[in-house]
Amino acid sequence: MKRKRAYSGLGITIKAVCWFLLLVAPIHTNLTRSYSQENEPHEGTANHSKSDSVRLAIDFDAVDLQGQPFKGLSLKGKIVFLDFWAVWCGPCIEAFPALKKLDSDFKDASFEVVGIAVYSGTVEDVTQVVEKYGLDYRIVVGDEDLVERFGVIGVPTYVLIGPDGHIYKKYVGAVKGFYEELEEDISKLRKEVKIE
């Protein structure tokens, strides 16, 4: 009798492992593959030697708050900090003051913060939040394709892009010491690409 119970418990464990492999592993593999193949296979250096077949990270389309198309390629040559956020996301909203300061402190022709609202309803819904918090950096509205392309599995997600249009670093979730870490990373990237 005891032996039969041991096997039935083992059966449940095997079933759980099988379900995990069937459901979770393909999702992880798909996210990893789409992020590394479509976007950026390397992170952490501003000097990439890429073939023309690799799509630049800033080669994306979104919609601005006036409902007009926005082309990410218009940012080429700048260091760009993308902020994937949602109107209902507490940690995203808590990061707004640091993002405003970041945009202000590094504001020049070679740096730009771009907030990309996702899963946030209409352009009007996003505009209400932007006005409520006095966001003065560029805000656009992204779609499911943009979320998938950057491998965004939760908000906030941040992506630091070098002037060559490739990803330098990606941050997922709320970042402790947010402003200080970003300031350090942006300063390091500016030195690597010789922007003073």
- CATH level 3 topology of the largest domain: Glutaredoxin
- Per CATH, the architecture of the largest domain is 3-Layer(aba) Sandwich
Low-confidence regions? 5-53
Number of domains: 2
Strand order, sheet with most strands = 2-1-5-4-3-6-7
- Head-to-tail CA distance between termini: 76 Å
Instruction: Tell me the major beta sheet.
Output: 7 strands, mixed
Shape, principal axes of CA atoms:
globular
CATH class of the largest domain: Alpha Beta
Number of helices: 6
How many strand elements?
Answer: 7
Q: Provide the succession of SSEs.
A: HEEEHHEHEHEEH
Question: What does this protein look like?
Answer:
The protein has six helices and seven strands; from the N terminus they run αβββααβαβαββα. With 196 residues, the protein is α/β, with parallel strands linked by helices. About 25% of the residues have low confidence. Helices cover 43% and strands 18% of the residues. The chain is globular. The chain folds into two domains: 39 residues; 132 residues, Glutaredoxin. Helix 3 packs parallel to helix 6. It has a seven-stranded mixed β-sheet with strand order 2-1-5-4-3-6-7. Strand 1 and strand 2 form a beta hairpin.
Secondary-structure blueprint:
Elements: H1 2-39, E1 61-64, E2 69-71, E3 79-85, H2 90-94, H3 96-105, E4 111-117, H4 123-133, E5 138-141, H5 144-149, E6 157-161, E7 167-172, H6 178-192
Parallel strand pairs: 3-4, 4-5
Antiparallel strand pairs: 1-2, 1-5, 3-6, 6-7
Helix pairs in contact: 3-6
